[in-house]
Specification:
There is one protein chain. The chain is mostly helical. Helices cover 69% and strands 0% of the residues. The protein contains 13 helices and no strands. The chain is elongated, with a radius of gyration of 23 Å. It starts with 12 loop residues before the first helix and ends with a helix. This is HEAT repeat protein. GO terms for molecular function: oxidoreductase activity. Pfam families: HEAT_2.
Length: 207
Amino acid sequence: MALKKPAPAAPSSDDERRLARDLPGLLSALEAADPLARRWAARDLTDHPDASRALVERLGIETEPSVSQVILTTLTRLGDEIAVAGLTECLRSEDAMLRNAAIEAMKQLPDEVAPVMEQLLKDHDPDVRIFAVDVLESLRHPRVEEWLIRVIAEDPHVNVCATAVDLLGEVGSERAVPTLHALKARFVDEPYIQFAADLALKRIAQG
């Protein structure tokens, strides 16, 4: 009886990772039907600075959270202008997990995010302005206090100012004191602003 030759095994995701790991191959794998193949591609694209645009585009349509997370990690490591633009665009997302992950990613890129921060803090959408203040929470940049002072001095939205004054209570110095008093005068009928500003002033006074 003749022996049947076994059919060749279908390539696994690990096989796909071993094949065509140059930029064209990785970009092709980034569009694969298999989420594992997309995840490996997104991870390996860390070594390809020219991949930022493709990663940003994929992030906009990606439905698998684990792949989105790896894309965000790779964009953070690349950290170029296109990558930062892609991360900031996530602040407009209705997906809270994606939005929060982008905020955490931006916190790791203080020098790269700084050039777009003023624009974000003046965005027409108050939610985006609030998320921008959230980025400032752990952004290790020398202008953080300056940006927060400007927010509480100029922003017309009470919730944006409330978010900023909360953070000023943690990072503010004597230079914030006049603006905190002005904020109290501007939102005299807002109990939370009064409370948060007083708390910030107390913490600053205590050093």
